[in-house]
Amino acid sequence: MKTFTFQKDQFSRLFPFYILLDESMVMQSCGQTIQKVFGQCEHNEFTDWFTLERPNTTTCTFEGLQKISNQVAVFRSTKRTDFVLRGQVEFLAEENHLLLLLTPWFDSVETVLKNNLTLDDFSLHDSTIDLLHVLKTHEITTSDMKELLIKVKEQKDELKQLSLIVEDSVNSILVTDDEGRVEWVNKAFFNITGYTLAEVKGKKPGQILQGKQTSKDTIQYLKSQIHHKQPFSCEILNYHKNGTPYWIRLSGQPLFNKDGVVTRFFGMQEDITKEKQANEKLTESENRLAALIVNLQTGILLENENREVLLANQKFCSMFGLDSSPDKLMGSLSALEEYKS
């Protein structure tokens, strides 16, 4: 049978981390990378440089190592405790030597760099570096995934908080598709309109909420803004489910996707019925007061800080012999200067 023979340099290139021990556990020969890492270790006691970590059922003696030739052996350097070698032990019967075919057991690419090792320090068939690259890629991917998951969780938490705020808002909130058909409404929408989401979903709000006294001009304005994908703001008279009219201040914004295309509208309705009623009462009161003043038999003239007429009655015009009616006096008082003392 033909046998293989290698020169020491050849063998060192194939197994740059090998160690050859004699029966006295003296290192007779070492691979080129072992010597690069530890310096001149040949002819030194193996146990002065390394300890056996696995298997822990045997001792680090010639006989002990001979017994584990069919097992994976792990050795740790006593000179550099972060340097671990893993491999197998072969007994060479003719020379009565032990051949340790080893490779570093690194847990990261950083450890390789820390020990000043390069690709040239490993045999071409050694997959250690490839595995470390895979591990590093996996770590990076895992790290990126963790960061992504954290960000997603943070965004979900923020959205949850926002949704709670929107859901509990006193103003009516609704989201429609790009054509204005309802997709979602909050609780306040029901409180203001009397309609549930199930009753309005897929429908345009105007079809349900607008009535005979709703301004046609305002309806046309809203239709035009939505058709042209533009924001809108207005006050409009709507009708509750029970038929009661109410006023809202309505504002809406188009929502765009990443391509700049409008996909939805976000709308907010504020019930201003009480505000409207208060303004109407104030106007009525002002009108009554104005009518009272106009019909008084005492001349009345009211002007502001700029000496502009705010109100006058016919008696005032008669008293000063003015040809103008009270309405025509509104504005400048220059025509009355001659009567001022």
Helix/strand layout:
Blueprint: H1 8-14, E1 19-21, E2 27-30, H2 32-38, H3 46-49, E3 50-54, H4 62-67, E4 73-77, E5 84-92, E6 97-104, H5 109-114, H6 128-167, E7 172-177, E8 182-185, H7 187-193, H8 197-200, H9 205-209, H10 216-227, E9 232-239, E10 245-256, E11 262-271, H11 273-294, E12 301-303, E13 309-312, H12 314-319
3D structure, described in words:
This protein has about 350 residues and is an alpha+beta fold. It has helices at about 10-15, 30-40, 45-50, 60-65, 110-115, 130-165, 185-195, 195-200, 205-210, 215-225, 275-295, 315-320, and strands at about 20, 25-30, 50-55, 75, 85-90, 95-105, 170-175, 180-185, 230-240, 245-255, 260-270, 300-305, 310. It has a 6-stranded antiparallel beta sheet with strand order 2-1-6-5-4-3. It has a 5-stranded antiparallel beta sheet with strand order 8-7-11-10-9, sandwiched between helices. The chain is rod-shaped, with a radius of gyration of 47 Å. The chain starts with 7 loop residues before the first helix and ends in a 22-residue tail after the last helix.
